[in-house]
Amino acid sequence: MKTTVANRDHRVAPGSSWVPKRTSLEADRELDHIQAVVHAVSASTSASLPMSAGYWRARLGDLRIGYALLPVQLAKLSALERCVEEIEPRAKDIVPIDERCVA
Length: 103
Description:
Elements: H1 24-43, H2 53-66, H3 71-87, E1 96-97, E2 100-101
Antiparallel strand pairs: 1-2
Protein backbone atom coordinates (compact mmCIF):
# COMPACT_ATOMS: atom_id res chain seq x y z
CA MET A 1 0.00 0.00 0.00
CA LYS A 2 1.42 3.38 -1.04
CA THR A 3 1.35 6.11 1.59
CA THR A 4 1.26 9.79 0.67
CA VAL A 5 1.91 12.51 3.18
CA ALA A 6 0.17 15.83 2.59
CA ASN A 7 1.46 19.16 3.77
CA ARG A 8 -0.68 21.14 6.21
CA ASP A 9 -1.94 23.28 3.34
CA HIS A 10 -3.42 20.16 1.69
CA ARG A 11 -0.85 19.91 -1.10
CA VAL A 12 0.58 16.55 -2.03
CA ALA A 13 4.02 15.69 -3.29
CA PRO A 14 4.63 16.36 -7.01
CA GLY A 15 3.82 13.38 -9.19
CA SER A 16 1.31 11.97 -6.75
CA SER A 17 -2.10 11.04 -8.12
CA TRP A 18 -3.81 11.13 -4.74
CA VAL A 19 -5.50 14.40 -3.82
CA PRO A 20 -6.81 14.86 -0.29
CA LYS A 21 -10.38 15.90 0.24
CA ARG A 22 -11.13 19.38 1.50
CA THR A 23 -12.20 19.70 5.13
CA SER A 24 -15.71 19.58 6.54
CA LEU A 25 -15.27 23.19 7.72
CA GLU A 26 -14.71 24.27 4.11
CA ALA A 27 -17.74 22.20 3.13
CA ASP A 28 -19.84 24.07 5.69
CA ARG A 29 -19.03 27.37 3.99
CA GLU A 30 -19.98 26.02 0.57
CA LEU A 31 -23.16 24.39 1.85
CA ASP A 32 -24.20 27.58 3.65
CA HIS A 33 -23.69 29.66 0.50
CA ILE A 34 -25.64 27.28 -1.73
CA GLN A 35 -28.37 26.93 0.90
CA ALA A 36 -28.75 30.72 1.13
CA VAL A 37 -29.21 31.01 -2.65
CA VAL A 38 -31.56 28.05 -2.98
CA HIS A 39 -33.70 29.04 0.01
CA ALA A 40 -33.97 32.66 -1.15
CA VAL A 41 -35.22 31.45 -4.52
CA SER A 42 -37.59 28.86 -3.08
CA ALA A 43 -39.08 31.44 -0.69
CA SER A 44 -39.83 33.81 -3.58
CA THR A 45 -42.77 33.20 -5.88
CA SER A 46 -41.17 34.88 -8.89
CA ALA A 47 -37.39 34.61 -8.46
CA SER A 48 -35.36 32.09 -10.40
CA LEU A 49 -31.95 30.63 -9.69
CA PRO A 50 -29.21 33.08 -10.68
CA MET A 51 -27.56 30.24 -12.61
CA SER A 52 -29.00 27.15 -14.24
CA ALA A 53 -30.07 24.19 -12.13
CA GLY A 54 -27.31 22.17 -13.81
CA TYR A 55 -24.73 24.57 -12.41
CA TRP A 56 -26.03 24.12 -8.87
CA ARG A 57 -26.26 20.35 -9.27
CA ALA A 58 -22.60 20.35 -10.40
CA ARG A 59 -21.61 22.44 -7.38
CA LEU A 60 -23.38 20.00 -5.08
CA GLY A 61 -21.79 17.05 -6.88
CA ASP A 62 -18.36 18.61 -6.41
CA LEU A 63 -19.09 18.88 -2.70
CA ARG A 64 -20.07 15.22 -2.49
CA ILE A 65 -16.85 14.12 -4.20
CA GLY A 66 -14.25 16.67 -3.14
CA TYR A 67 -14.96 17.20 0.54
CA ALA A 68 -14.70 15.05 3.66
CA LEU A 69 -18.37 15.36 4.64
CA LEU A 70 -19.90 14.52 7.98
CA PRO A 71 -23.23 12.63 8.07
CA VAL A 72 -25.15 15.81 8.92
CA GLN A 73 -23.52 17.55 5.93
CA LEU A 74 -24.48 14.67 3.63
CA ALA A 75 -28.08 15.02 4.80
CA LYS A 76 -27.98 18.79 4.16
CA LEU A 77 -26.48 18.18 0.72
CA SER A 78 -29.21 15.68 -0.18
CA ALA A 79 -31.88 18.13 0.96
CA LEU A 80 -30.33 20.88 -1.19
CA GLU A 81 -30.28 18.54 -4.19
CA ARG A 82 -34.02 17.97 -3.73
CA CYS A 83 -34.63 21.72 -3.42
CA VAL A 84 -32.74 22.41 -6.65
CA GLU A 85 -34.89 19.78 -8.41
CA GLU A 86 -38.06 21.41 -7.10
CA ILE A 87 -37.17 24.90 -8.30
CA GLU A 88 -35.54 23.76 -11.55
CA PRO A 89 -38.51 24.77 -13.72
CA ARG A 90 -37.90 28.39 -12.63
CA ALA A 91 -34.14 28.30 -13.32
CA LYS A 92 -32.78 30.69 -15.93
CA ASP A 93 -31.87 29.32 -19.33
CA ILE A 94 -28.14 29.79 -19.62
CA VAL A 95 -25.95 28.19 -22.26
CA PRO A 96 -23.76 25.55 -20.59
CA ILE A 97 -20.00 25.79 -21.05
CA ASP A 98 -17.96 22.68 -20.22
CA GLU A 99 -20.69 21.08 -18.06
CA ARG A 100 -20.98 24.28 -15.99
CA CYS A 101 -23.09 27.31 -16.72
CA VAL A 102 -21.98 30.88 -16.70
CA ALA A 103 -24.12 34.00 -16.37
